Amino acid sequence: MRRALALSVGLLLGLLLAPVQPAQGQAGARQPDLVVARGSAQLDGTRITGRVVVVNLRGPQARAADRSVVRLTAVRSGRAVVLGSLAVRRLAAGRSASVRVDVSTARLRPGKYAVRACADGGQRLRERSERNNCRVLARITVAGSSGGSLCGTAMCAPLDVARGTEVPYTDASGSYWVYVPDNGSDEPYGVLIWLHGCGGDHGDIWGAADYWGYHYIAIVPDGAEGGCWSMSTGPDRVLATVDSLRAHFDIDPHRVVLGGYSSGGDLAYRTAFLHAERFAGVLAMNTSPFRDNGTTVADAARASWRFPIFHLLHTDDETYPKAGVDAELDDLDDLGFPVTRQELPGTHWDEPTDPGDPTDGTWHDFQEVLVKGHMDDGWVSP
């Protein structure tokens, strides 16, 4: 009897002290789960073509997946080279999307590669599992790279790129990721050169892209992938981007807008002050005109013209506090720059309240308020 009682007490204590296990799916309640269900790719000259099917898996805690991208990489000896990112529409749980693959091999050296597709490239969505996103589509052998030479006159080396998706290319001035809208217009394009913040990369092009029918090319230059922009070499990199666009695409050189977030905004301001004749205006977000880029009010005063500026700031930005930013924007006002400023609640970087349906957060403000709101303002340089 005493032994039985001891056993009972032991079992009871074990149950009371045992860690409580969460219910199935509780920790990842109502999250999407994107996978590359199937796909194929083949080498076609200097391009890789094929198709990828992305599925948002059904499950008891499944929810819709917001718009995302499939990132294509070529893997060799453990090193992955990004080929491009393909847009995927919003997917309800259990639904799939078929995405056409058409990317350049310009960034690949000769050799053998595995072509890999990863759903939710850049992991911008919070998923039930992050371990099932990728699939190898094919193995290819690249005979040689196809980077073109940069020439000096308009449209001297035209590039016929896939429309409505991110396309990487390389020329003598460097590597780029470009989005050319598919809107049917034959008019010369405007341009948005977008410069990401510290730790960002070319994936920001999906926020800068022209989904709105404004007829502009969005382009992201290399030079700071995963890092911060150099204020000493950065302006030359931006000017090379303009020259590259002029050589390869039918652009209007008087409608080139510079945009940037944080470190990218620092570089956008610096480049525009020092080379104002090349740009139609500046779109800046969570940055400051002078503080971190080595320029002064005197540099802005020497600018060849007073280009328009739209500056978006978050009121609780701890990296670029509002008081300092306001003082520097006041300096630009005093110099006669047409400055429009907008304040929104938030810190330097905020995730959306609802990742499945983002109506707030830094990425939303970047795309909807900064780019969509002002790339159709009609800015033109002299």
From TrEMBL:
The keyword Hydrolase applies. Residues 342-362 are annotated as: Disordered. Pfam families: CARDB. Keywords: Hydrolase, Signal. Transmembrane segments: none annotated. InterPro entries: AB_hydrolase_fold, CARDB, Ig-like_fold, Plant_Biomass_Hydrol_Est. The keyword Signal applies. Residues 32-135 form the CARDB domain. It comes from the Bacteria. Residues 1-22 form the signal peptide. PANTHER family: FERULOYL ESTERASE, UNNAMED PRODUCT-RELATED. This is CARDB domain-containing protein. It comes from Nocardioides hankookensis.
